Amino acid sequence: MGDSHPTRPSLLARLCNHRDDESWAQFVAIYGPLVYGFARKQGLQDADAADLTQEALRQVARSMPDFDYDPARGTFRGWLFTVVRNLLTKFGKCLQRPGLGAGNTEALDRLEEIPDSAETLSALWEAEHERQLYAWAAEKVRGEVQESTWRAFHETAVLGHAPAEVAGRFGMSVAAVYLAKNRVMVRLKARVRELDAES
């Protein structure tokens, strides 16, 4: 998928219009799972991760009318990472107050295990972004190809099974398995490019 998939200004510019429901739906579909998945991996329970995601998206919505995107100052995703990291820190402090929190110390213990290094957290954020980007593209592409094509791709490219083994299991030729894998890869890369072009 490549090392960097910057959020291009076109989607960010459209988000300045709070009435642009289509752009906001696209934004939430792309970035909502990223924030939620990252929060879950940092030890938040489902409801807490959902609350943090909502608050992060709310902060984005509040910031958009005055948001001045300047790629020279960093990526939008980097700015969003800072928002999420600050919310995680605030959430951890809330759990330390008497009478607040999830009712046990497990969430607090997990939050205290979050790496202090901004570089480490940033790497975890980028890894989650790649995972969510693949999931988003895969959801789109799976509906565009035959199920046998998708299964051949998934078995070889994702699960790492040998093409000959997959061919035998699904009653396909080895060449057909390679073709299916290639066809899906091309579509996945096109979806990622499309996302880059629109956002």
Describe the structure.
The protein has 199 residues and is an all-alpha fold. It folds into two domains: 1-142, no CATH class; 144-199, Orthogonal Bundle (Arc Repressor Mutant, subunit A), CATH 1.10.10. It is built from nine helices and no strands.
Question: Main attributes?
Answer:
2 domains, mainly alpha, 199 residues, Arc Repressor Mutant, subunit A, 0% strand
The topology string of helices and strands comes to: HHHHHHHHH
The geometry reads as elongated
Beta fraction: under 5%
Helix content percent band: over 70%
Main beta sheet? none
- Helical segment count: 9
Q: What is the structural class?
A: mainly alpha
Low-confidence stretches: none
Number of domains: 2
Summary, kept brief:
The chain is mainly α and 199 residues long. The chain has nine helices and no strands.
Write the layout of secondary structure elements.
Elements: H1 9-15, H2 21-41, H3 46-63, H4 76-96, H5 106-112, H6 118-142, H7 147-158, H8 163-170, H9 174-198
Helix pairs in contact: 2-3, 2-6, 3-4, 4-5, 6-9, 7-8, 7-9, 8-9
